[in-house]
Amino acid sequence: MAGDVESTFTGSKGEKRLKGVEVVYPIVTGTVAFFLGKKATGTASHKWTVYVRGLKNEDLSHVIKKVTFYLHPSFNNPARDVTESPFEVNETGWGEFEINIKIYFHDEAFEDPIEILHHLRLYADNDGGSTAQQSTKKPVVTESYDELVFNEPAEAFHSRWRGHDPAPAKDSQAAPFFLEFAPQQDLDKINALRRRIAQQKAGLLQQFEAPMS
Question: By the 8 A CB rule, do 146 and 28 touch?
Answer without folding.
Answer: yes
